[in-house]
Amino acid sequence: MAEDNYVLQRSSEAERLRRQGRLVENMTRPLLEKIGLCPGMSCLDIGCGPGEAMRLMGEMVGDTGTVVGIDIDGTAGRSGMDRLRAEIECNFQFIEQDLSGSNPLPQGPFDLVFGRLVLIHLPDPIAMLRKMYAVTKPGGVILVQDYNGTSFDIQPRPKLDFGGLGGCQAA
Ligand SMILES: C[S@@+](CC[C@H](N)C(=O)[O-])C[C@H]1O[C@@H](n2cnc3c(N)ncnc32)[C@H](O)[C@@H]1O
User: Which top CATH class is 10-26+38-145?
Assistant: First the structure.
């Protein structure tokens, strides 16, 4: 598995993501329906993890459609694909790739380019959005579900008027 700075524990992460995927399914499925994802279409899921969003896409595009997932975690991605292929008739593909690198995304072009809870992990999310745009079909859709940092808060508020670190003292 590639080395990276992902802050969550890799060992239990795939199972956590599968459970989380089921929890947030009711936020993702209606959006996929709303954009009109249909049999035969092609999708790219960046930062797919073990593939729970790919599962929803696969169910909707069916055996004439394609769903490609990319993740730095090859172990989770490959075992996720084995599961999906056993359960759903669709052309699933997985690419192990560090999205923070300069490698381009697979060319596609795709009807849907999707990323859920992944841009927040990337050092340059705007650059990633540009890459996503480059591989989206004209008339296709880029769909991102991520945290909005402006709505975060901490209670109780941390006291910031503690006078600083006191400056450097000569030894
Ligand atoms: C919170 S999980 C979301 C997984 C999936 N999108 C979902 O919603 O179930 C974030 C995913 O981004 C992947 N990731 C984080 N940094 C990455 C990077 N630099 N390149 C590729 N994937 C990365 C992690 O391995 C992980 O699978």
Answer: alpha beta
pLDDT single digits (tens) 32-58:
999 999 999 999 999 999 999 999 999
Mean pLDDT, residues 53-71: 98
Q: What does the buried/exposed string (b/e) look like for 136-165 if buried means 16 or more CB atoms within 10 Å of the residue's CB?
A: beeebbbbbeeeeeeeeeeeeeeeeeeeee
pTM score, whole prediction: 0.85
Strands (DSSP E) found in 15-167: 42-46, 66-71, 91-96, 110-116, 136-145
- Cα(34) to centroid of ligand 1, in Å? 24
Domain parsing of the chain, residue ranges: 10-26+38-145
Instruction: Tell me if 98 CB under 6 Å of ligand 1.
Output: yes
Helix/strand/coil for 91: strand
Angle at 97 between CA 92 and CA 101, to 5 degrees: 145
Please, which residues bridge with residue 141 across strands? 112
Q: Round to whole Å and give the CA distance between 51 and 103.
A: 21
Residue 73 CB–ligand 1 contact under 6 Å:
yes
